[in-house]
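Suppose you are handed a protein chain with no further information: no name, no annotation, nothing but its sequence. What can you learn? This example shows the usual starting point.
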Amino acid sequence: MPIFAVQYTYSEATAAERDRQRPRHRAWLADHLAAETLLSSGPYPDGSGALLLFRAADSKALGQLLAADPFAQESLIDEVRATEWQPVLGAFAG
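A reasonable first move is to predict its three-dimensional structure. Written in structure tokens, the prediction is:
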């Protein structure tokens, strides 16, 4: 199954609401980690966004998955960039 590198971009204007929604967002991530659709995720140290690595059948399936993120449902993500990624070496290489 393809791996997608997903980059979320955040703005300072949504920081307080993201803090409030973070428990729901992290529970959603934990569910996907348990289902093995999420490989890894984490915020950028400067607070500007996050990187998430997902497995999904295709970009349409990924879009449906990301739409269920509480951050997305609350309009707390300024931009989403998703790119199919083919790791050749390392922990995620097939």
